[in-house]
Amino acid sequence: MNVVVVESPAKAKTINKYLGSDYEVLASYGHIRDLPSKDGSVSPDHDFAMAWSVDGQSEKRIKDIIAALKEADTLILATDPDREGEAISWHISEELTRRKVLKDKNVQRVVFNEVTKKAIVDAFSQPRELNMELVEAYLARRALDYLFGFTLSPVLWRKLPGSKSAGRVQSVALRMICERESEIEKFKPQEYWSVEAKLQTEEDLSFTSRLTHLSGRKLDKFDLSNAAEAEKAADLLRGASSFGVTTVERKKAKRNPYAPFTTSTLQQEASRKLGFGASRTMRLAQNLYEGMDIGGETVGLITYMRTDGVSLSGDAIAASRNLISKMYGKDYLPANPRIYKSKAKNAQEAHEAVRPTDLSRLPRDLRGVLDQDSYRLYELIWNRTMASQMEAAVLDQVAVDIDVNQGEATLRANGSIMAFDGFMKIYQESRDDSKKGDDQDRRLPRMSEGDTLRREDVQADQHFTQPPPRFSEASLVKNLEELGIGRPSTYASIIQVLQDRSYVRLESKRFIPEDRGRIVTTFLENFFRRYVEYNFTADLENSLDDISAGSLDWKEVLREFWKAFDEKISGTKDLTITEVIETLDEELGLHFFPVEENNPDAPNPRQCPTCGDGRLGIKLGRTGGFIGCSNYPECRYTRPLGIAGEGGSEDDLHQPRELGPDETTGLMISLRKGPYGIYLQLGEGEDGKKPKRVAVPKGVAPADVSHEMAQGLISLPRDVGPHPDDGVMITAGIGRFGPFVKHGSTFKSLTKDDDVLFVGLNRAVALLAEAPKRGAATALKSLGKHPEDEAEINIYSGRYGPYVKWNKLNASLPKGREVDSFTLEEAVELLAKQAEKKGVKKKASARKTAAKKTTTKKAATKKAAPKKTAAKKTATKDDGAE
Asked: What's this model's pTM, rounded to 2 decimal places?
């Protein structure tokens, strides 16, 4: 007999079907041991000894394993193939050894990159011992994170009241977000102008060109710096008598496909294409990896999703090439397989890229099997994997130079034509946040040197340089990875912790640091700068990689870190709150008290509005920071942290703020505050008619509403595109309950990750498919009959997730609980708790309920009777109904 241990019950269920009756597969439900959240769990004084503990739930799992081992000869540890999986196996082995359970037992370790029958059988035929180098890398990371957090956090609590905690990697990610916000605040937009001419060929085909040379001089970006200069150049073009093609440059450009997904690139693309957060992506990928029921067989649909590797196995490459040839033709199949190599250091532990376990399992085959989100993620992974082995796309790029009045000016037109779509037939990567579209995608009419052209229109346009964009989840993950900070498998939890601790908030898919987060970052940068530096954190990650590769001793890494860190912590004992306040006030002064440049009449933002001669500054109280007057206690003026008078919150918006004219009507768009929140108004209304008004979406700060955003919102509803099923136009708008998409009479609210101004046709169709159909709801799963009254208990999909329903009683499934594995017994217990919580009396039986209703009805039609008689009748009826 063999006992197999994996992390999750879903994985256990899948593997159990592939192994014979000689194997019993159990789940550890993740780690069975952890470091207690208290001082002393890691002891630097005792060579970094760690005190592990087992909680109540894990104790039950250990007892199940011990019971199974009584009849077994071998323990097989089959947890995930990375450091964390190796550590889980090590913990199990160590704890069972400590309890003297493994005496005379054979302990083996097996790893596999996909949950398929072939992979499982192959892995079990090649067992190995625990890889202690991976375990030591895990131990070093846990010790570093513990020592950093449990040593630095108390300093924060003492010296920076109201702050929460610090983390070795999360603090660096927070610094990155705060620094970007500071760049945006300090950014000074610079004006520049461009001039474009719309021209026509002899065949009356129009195209747009831009001014590149004036009077023989090439124009730089800022050479036309104001309206007068731009209009002068535009007038020259308007008065020109000749436009002729001087040169036509044509060249072919190839675009090669992207490598298959790693953990990081999967998170980035799922964020950009599907609107999924990192946590959501990893949760869905975990389910696809552990297995789904397909035709009565539970199979893993993708390979292991925590990986730095971009390589594909020989079998996967052969399968993809075979499919490409069959589905798309020989033209889309390159002569040789594409081989990708990881740039990540020590990526040998990461194995393959994230790919489908069986590429012949097409996404369309799983449409009725997977839920919508899982289907979309699987389709994304399938498309990326297939595209990675396809032929390159070929573009015909054209650049045309046009002479104006024999040398007075030069215009240029750029464009491209897709000569061969190649891999782009099934996959195009989303644009990065920082990359703007250009005119390379324009289509140009055919032209030749010497062609004469006609002027159709000339336009001078004003522009302003833009600050760097705030981080989205995708761009934050990309930057963290590029800097070598943390590891892709940890990014989801890092991002979640920053939000849970109210250090940052996510608005319009962008991270904005809260004032609490900025204060913590400023404190750490000034008093613990080394430990939030990008290079320091990245070097520690490299050290962990060296430990896992066996080239560095893990205890030496801890000793080196702790010696300097402990000295730094000790040096803060004499640090006073006054010093901290002065530092914060100096560093964050421009943020909380911005000065209006070039406006000598602007009020002093530091002047106290109550006493008039006091200076406002940052103060620290028991619950955190606030703005206060220097004349305290004589002057008790205070206000919460924040920037006064910039319209950053609803309270700051006292008067309508004009944003600019509407491009269609010319009426002014203004931002206003009403009894139900912030809204946009078009004009002032005429002839007694109410002006058009549109609510600003929840979560968008007034200060972030630009003229461009307002223009889009005031133009709602907008057409998204025709529905592929019936051609009826899908529209997007904002209604009483927030942003929505509409198809015919069907409405579906947008999620917090969707943008009403940019939601596309594919996303809209997917959302509408999830909209509840009119009539009775369809059960996701029938669990059986309730033991009390034989009424059916079913699982339904609700607005806030799946729930069980029995008669009129509903109860939400526990967070993270899978529908497929939820049992009738669990449902009965859950409903009982919900009934007790709501004070609902249990029904003994359906007949008993009916009898009570009959009794009540009859009693209401009779004259009042003595209480004893009425009670007797009721009791008799109840007895008869039993």
From this structure: 0.67
